[in-house]
Amino acid sequence: MPPAVQSEEAIQRLPTLHDFFSPGGILAKSSLAFEQRPGQYLMARTIEQAFADRRHLIVEAGTGTGKTLAYLLPALRRARENNQRIIISTGTKNLQEQLYFKDIPFLESLLGPLRVCYMKGRANYVCKHKLFALRDNPLLHGLDEISHFHSILNWEKKTATGDRAEIADLPESSALWHKLDARSEVCLGQSCPDWEQCYITSMRRKAMESEIVIVNHHLFFADLNIKQQAAGAPDAGILPEAAAVIFDEAHELEDVASQYFGIALSNARFDELARDTEMLLRAKKVSTAAIESATNSLRERSRMFFGSLPVGPSHLGRLEFIDRQDFLEARGDAYIAASNALQRLESELDHLRDVDEAPGLRKRAADIRNHLKFLLESTDPNTVFWIERRATSGLRTTARNNRGPSTLSPLTQIGTPTDVSSRPERSGVERPAFDPPQSFSTHLQATPIDVSQLLADTLFATYPSVILTSATLTVAGPNAEPSFDHLTKRLGVPFPKTLVVPSLFDYPRQALLYLPATMPEPRHPDFLPQATEKIRRVLEITRGRAFCLFTSHAQMRELHDRLLSQLPYPLLMQGSAPRHVLLQQFRETPNAVLFGTSSFWQGIDVQGEQLSCVIIDKLPFAVPSDPIMRARTEAIAAAGGNAFNDLQVPQAVIALKQGFGRLIRSLSDRGVLMLLDPRIRTTRYGKTFLESLPPYRRTDDIAEVERFFET
Fold first, then answer.
1. So what's the pLDDT on residue 232?
2. CB-CB contact of 614 with 604 (8 Å)
3. CA 451-387-448 angle, 5° bins
4. What pLDDT is recorded for position 401?
5. Would you say the C-alpha torsion 530, 534, 536, 537 has a positive or negative sign?
6. What is the pLDDT of residue 195?
């Protein structure tokens, strides 16, 4: 459905791309410091043509291209001139907020009012119905929950959006918010007495009237999955129809799509169903002794079931759940008991008459039961089944300090590739003699091994034009030219048009890539001592002002501790404070050094001399023993491919480009990059990494690093 039509007088015609981007044009006359960017104009024209031709397009736009304006104006023009709607999806909420709160107001100052909507996932918004139910029948635990509840209740009387981001004093870890958010499981839809005043309803209305809807990848794929399961039902999902989608930070799509096309079930989901059933029905004074007995039984049976699941060498982390048949033979009674407890609750809820909440709660119980059945009994060959245990908020720091490298996900830990034949034995169904501590939450997961066909059917066949863009999408091909083959194959993009827009930066002048000549292999016992010495020497030259990025938490902590007494600079480490606090401390602390893992490899923009060096310990290969990575490598090998060359190397190349990309963020930035892993020079695949990187000047001489900072 197109956006609401306005009168001709109300519609302002938008300028052509030439009038906007050309020297002496609208952008040049704006308050923005204008630089002629041929690549930006080329990208904008190519996107506009892709819309016109109803083609899919992939654009690698080097840092400094100005890609947000390059896709915003063509999207606005297409939407307005054809009375259509276009969705823009970003990899992070930070970029989403930058688009809506910075880039769109800037464009409005040049172009006049724009019909743009900003949408986040339902869990970011408060549910009036749940809030009022809790007010009337408070089930609160502890002084913190009571304090948070009064803050939320007072804020709700004033907010126009219902977005929790407006409550500055509500901690991210607040357990109360999960009792009050607007997730769809408890939504009563149009039968809700608060439907007209609902913040989700209001957000949907605004989206229906908008030409551009700005979302993030997590919301987009959660919505796409809901629509797929609902087989196109008109009220399914939250996002409106659109003529095209633009994905910024498109290098993240496979991981996000895999997450939302899979199934996840945790002990918390059982507990939340029991809690919401009691809270909503007690508030209406319609709860019965039979229902209360059923919810108590559900809690008990779910604890027994999740406690019976296999445990790996470490309490925390992932392990593949391959022997599900053996588990059912040995522990099937716990599974059946949990399933029966859900069915019993469904039956008791079915006895309630004229209670608006009952159908939604009953559907939740049925959905959990069906998901449980799939997770334990499905034989889908394109699905990998696995278990993950995570520390709850109270013990996360302790758990982080005790966690070994093997417990991290491929998105959290990146390490050394190994031959599949040499990996450790897979975990069986035998359980250790102890129960995992109750401070751990347990998640049972099913993830698609290959999402290419799913995306081809649900995304690329649904939208006439899908635009994928990022600064890191290509990997050097056999002829050393940038290739999109890895991306198109993994995402299932049919016959895309492609474009590479080189960065505006002068990398040979602005950046020096230092590859120390004498480093041992990462597994050699001398690697850590020599890495310590090389990092210390470079940080003395740069006077701190650096990111040290690592492929594992253990390596990060070890190097941090070794250097703490050797350097006179403030050393900040991931885990000591929230990510945004650490970044703010880094920006404000002269000569600071920040030690981080994967969450600091991308999505961070620190310009100027404060960041003059980026150091990376090892080539960022995903952990081959991770259940998802292992399943994907086996699938590629079974199809006759080479998983190392076809999957592991391209993924690591893109991750390395992201990590090094933190350094040069403007035309005036200068700095040194250091990679301590000698395999980039000594192995055949190392050539692929070097040919995929920007044209940095390279050296193995520390004296040249010194001279770089003397000029």
1. 58
2. no
3. 10
4. 39
5. positive
6. 86
| Residue 284 in this model has a pLDDT that exceeds 90 | no
Burial-class residue 481 by CB neighbours within 10 Å (0-12, 13-18, 19+). Answer: exposed
Concatenating the DSSP letter of every residue in 480-497 gives: SSEE-HHHHHHHT--S-E
Residue at 707: amino acid letter: R
Which ranges of 482-615 does DSSP label H, i.e. alpha helix?
485-491, 507-510, 527-542, 553-564, 579-588
Residue 596, pLDDT score: 95
Report the C-alpha gap between 469 and 72 in whole angstroms.
12
Helix crossing, 128-136 with 142-156: angle to 10°?
130
> Which residues touch 645 (CB under 8 Å, ≥6 apart)?
685
Residues 6 or more apart from 53 whose CB is under 8 A from it? none
Where residue 362 falls (left for φ over 0; alpha for ψ -120 to 50; beta otherwise) is alpha
Please state, in angstroms and rounded to a whole number, the distance separating the CA atoms of residues 606 and 572: 15
467, 47 contact by CB (below 8 A): yes
Q: Which two tokens stand for residue 561?
A: 């501790």
- Is 563 a residue whose pLDDT tops 90? yes
* Reported confidence tier of residue 419, pLDDT bands at 50, 70, 90: very low
Write down the pLDDT at residue 6. Answer: 52
For 268-332, list the strands marked E by DSSP.
317-320
Question: In the beta sheet, which residues pair with residue 61?
Answer: 501
Mean pLDDT of the region 439-454: 93
pLDDT: which is higher, 384 or 10: 384
